Amino acid sequence: MRIPLFQARDLLLDSQVVAIPTETVWGLSANMNSVDAVTKIYRLKNRPPKNPLIIHLADGGDIFEYLLGSPPKGLKDLTEQFWPGPLTLVVPVLEEKIPSIVRAGLGTAAFRVPALASTRELIRYVGPLVAPSANLSGKPSATCVSDVERDFGVSFPCFFPEGYNDENTELGVESTILIWKISPDGVGRWHVGRLGALSLSLIESVLQMPLVNTLQVDTDQPLCPGQMFRHYAPEALLTLGYTLEDLKKNYDAVIGFSDRCYPDASQIYYLGRSDSVYEVIRNIYRVLRKLDEDGIQRAWIDCCISDEEQRRESLWSVFFDRIKKAASK
Ligand code: TXA
Ligand code: MG
Description:
- The chain is globular.
- 28% of the residues lie in helices and 19% in strands.
- The chain has helices spanning 5-13, 35-45, 75-82, 100-103, 117-126, 145-152, 200-207, 277-293, 307-312, 316-327, and strands at residues 2-3, 18-20, 27-31, 54-56, 87-92, 108-112, 129-130, 158-159, 176-182, 188-194, 237-241, 253-257, 267-272, 298-302.
């Protein structure tokens, strides 16, 4: 159910959960200080209690009131350059200022400032909002209001700003997560916790120091607890296709690029042009959800992207990250 700003504000102030649009994906929001409302989020999503939530702030400067100790190196530059925007920062916090359930008991918390002005206006009225992506745990994230309604029911309250264009969220994929960690030698560094809409090379150019990226290392203790759990998966069985030859086998559908040709017999879902990684990333979740709506059982996804292309556009790593997770059962 689409509701205007004042109604969303009243529900949130009354410890209810309200879906909110952001420039990345839709979120399921609650007043950070209402333990009742935050508990409802975990229940609604069927989210493991060990998976902490992102705190959404109205203004970047607000993060400084929660910090434990002196600000991590580069924090000010990151917040000034990339907020509002698709970057989440995990830092050590003053635990008494943030309910434990939000942090899943950790001594750190995740923060971001969403880019959509009307969502920031809502936050200004209510105070910081926690918001995981508005999908059932394990399912693809939601990029339009009807995705949220499909997962949580048509009467679920969704903040719908006046004049909002709901075709698809602007970026279509979650924020990039960085985590500040001090190593045993006492040196602090930013680690990559999740690949997302903001490219790592852009972040490094502002930070002027390399990020530590151990995402490829196989571990059962990832930096973001959320990476442990099954993610982004449609019902359909996905096969990653690294040569067009593979396509000879029998699939119900092909997920591919609009500037390429596939066998006529296949049902084709287009992600966008292969030379526009932004368009492709923006459409991933929309296409994965469409497979389920259409009852597709087995789909082949075109992963033929040259190494050179991947080096030139580092955001292809986000495409492969989400697709691999969607394909793992
Ligand atoms: O773009 C986004 O970030 C969206 C929109 C709604 O803002 N939100 C989102 O939330 O993707 P969620 O809950 O789906 O993913 C949050 C991730 C999880 O992997 C969680 O483990 C990690 O952030 N996280 C949160 N707090 C953390 C902490 N203190 N330490 C490490 N990871 C943390
Ligand atoms: Mg999520």
